Amino acid sequence: ALALGRRGDGEPWRASIADPRRHGHLLFDLDIGDAPGALPALASSAGSGTPFGPSTRLHHLPDPRPGASASHHAGVTVAAPRATLADGLSTTLSVLAPARARGILPNWPEARAWFIEADGRIERVTGAAAPATPGRPSDRARPGTPAPDGGAGGR
Q1: pLDDT one-digit tens code per residue, 85-103
Q2: Chain-centroid distance, C-alpha 20
């Protein structure tokens, strides 16, 4: 997604992040566009998006080392200043082992990533600092879901 400016009513554009583990469920919302602290582009990657068959174990995100579908995360969402960067990073971070994925983020200090784990934990990592950081106030968890910083859900 790419959001330019603000909505017609002056409010920031918002994007809801889908739960890659449960079809039709949403995890949290993010401000995108030119809102303070927001970034204009957002991309998500998850093996559940394009499975090869009824199981999500085989999907379109290959892990090049074993030659099988990547299973490091249930999904990854990236916010960045450009859509091509958000898209490329979300796919790359989905395929790489967790330590390696977090290790490349400092190369893009303007990017932020949300790693959604199979157990439902959500870890937010910024490009400026590889360790997890608390979610911004605009990273609002949906009621009944984990917060994007790994804490309790709700608005």
Answers
A1: 999 998 889 888 788 888 8
A2: 10
